Amino acid sequence: MTVDPSPSVTPIVTYVDYKAGERRANSLNPAERLGLLAIGFFISVNAVGLAVHAASVVLVVYTPLAILIALLLFFVQPSLYVGFAWWILFLSPFVRRLVDYQLGFRSNNPILLAPLVVTGLSLLSVSYHAPKLLRRTLYPFLLVLVALAYGFVVGIAHVGILAAGYGLTTWLAPVTFGIYLALHPEWYSDMRRMLARVFISSLLILGVYGVWQFVSPPPWDVYWITASLQSNALNPEPFKVRLFGTLNSFGPFAAVLTAGLLVTFAWPSQVWKRCLAAVPGAASLMMTQVRTAWGELALGLGLYLLYLPGRRRLAPIAILLLSFVILVLSNIQPFASVLVSRAGSIASLTTDGSYLARRQLFAEYNDRILESPLGMGTGATGMAWVLTGGNGSTAPIENGFQDVFYSLGWMGGTLYLCAVLILARRSLKREERNTDLFAKVARAITIATLLAAWFGNIFTAVAGTVLWTFLGMQVASRLRRFGTDNWHSLT
Fold it and tell me: pTM for this structure?
């Protein structure tokens, strides 16, 4: 699949089934070779820089080089761009910690800008195809963009243009990434295959790293936990650390592992390959101790099973596999003590410290939202809290729905959530072919992630990219099924 250097050009893709698609993927065209060479160059430069203790070079070149590679892939090979963007999301915090370990901790490390800018490049295509957002199938995306524009204006007044701009990027980049996928249903087969490969391979790599981190936290992780003053939340001691893997926190790490497990159960490949990825991924997910993610995975599996035809109901195999992993971990010390203790807290929420703290924060921010009908704007929460030194903004809110209304106000928040709910309601319709297992698992991830918004902010950064990626793929699946000529008639 080759694209001329213009986001307006749409390559012609023949829709094929999974097996035919895999055969075609085994033969690389010149654009794919160029894209893979560019990615290999990016990996080599940074790996060599870190290996020879030239972290100062990596600090300077990482983000600009990532942007240049992403631009090349964006125009030459869109599916590789999507895969590259996800790996930048997965690994940039890890690279940042390696750099900080050699050079010293930086709270505003420029490496962390790479994921936002790389995924935000999708705005180029969204801007060009903006008139399509007026069509009936895609107008909810336009409502989201309007709500974010409103939040940005309000944010400038409350926290300044720098924090408001950064906050807008954390909200906008995931949305435009999802819109980018939805706008190009003709790429659906290639994007589906790429996302499946990315999430399955990341499940194996991130899962194995997570187990290593739990058993013997690497020195760069220990240094970062201590320097960033997160010792109480993450605990850098062996067999006690709360897993955050290659990401910056256990919440996003759990969100990625949950999506990866669901994709793994749906993708038609050899059972041993899926088990190879699922076992370390499930073990790491358990050790994140994120109870919301555990429930999200269970709900996602249930939804996936509900929409499967009888002869393809493989979810019981997935459930048995997960049950086996949990059973093994619950009988091996010290995994057992961590897992049993965290699972047992579900039955005693009234005395659980985390639950009580969430209740207190929920009540506090409810009052703030009622007192601020116009909202505080983008940049009022999240990492922009660091940029403003805590003045005019607040640390991340743990309830996604509250963060929407606190940041975007009553009007903007209602517009944003209504648009998301419209897209989610449409995704519930059973319209894809029975053979399109990816569309079914995308639906399960979307709905389960939305329900998890009660316990975490799933609309921004990594978690937001998970949500909007699979929402976008859901829309692309519907448009591919019915044809882009019928966009106006789809509801």
Answer: 0.88
